Amino acid sequence: MTGSGTRGSARRLAVGIVVTIGLGAAVSACGNGGTSLAVQACSHVDRSITLLQESHRQSQPDRAAQLQEQAYIQLRQALPVAAEAAFHDGQWQALMTTIAESSRVPEGTLVTALSAQCQAADSPAFGQPSPGSSIPPPAPASSSP
């Protein structure tokens, strides 16, 4: 009797492990979706736009230039995340392309398109909540010279 009870327990344990691994794989596949990556890229974009707007309110040219540089850095940090989002879901190709254009076009020219594309990333599709992210948002830019 003890042998058959042990085998039944071992079988239940094995089935439990297989189910847990299967569920873990399914959940992790959902977490790597393009939308969650686009939301992460847009956190950099939003920070970049905020810095750019702040630079326009500066009366000191050196401080304005510093803020514009920080804005550009935030935008460039968004690029690999947006590229990964586009890889997983083609609807984010435009976001990736617009961010990539920041190396050739002044960011001020791209703000309208970036804002619209990031608004799409932040709005839930079909009334469903946007997926969460396990990656923290970018750290605030340093304000010291």
Plain-language structure description:
- By secondary structure, the chain is mainly α.
- It has two domains: 31 residues; 91 residues, no CATH class.
- Helix content is 72%, strand content 0%.
- The protein contains five helices and no strands.
- The longest helix has 30 residues.
- The protein is elongated and about 80 Å long.
- About 7% of the residues have low confidence.
Q: Summarize the biggest pleated sheet.
A: none
Radius of gyration using CA atoms only: 22 Å
Total DSSP E strands: 0
Strand coverage percent = under 5%
Identify the quaternary structure here.
single chain
In percent, how helical is the residue content? over 70%
For the termini, the CA-CA separation is 76 Å
What is the number of domains?
Answer: 2
H/E element sequence: HHHHH
> Averaging pLDDT over every residue, what do you get?
80
Output the number of helix runs: 5
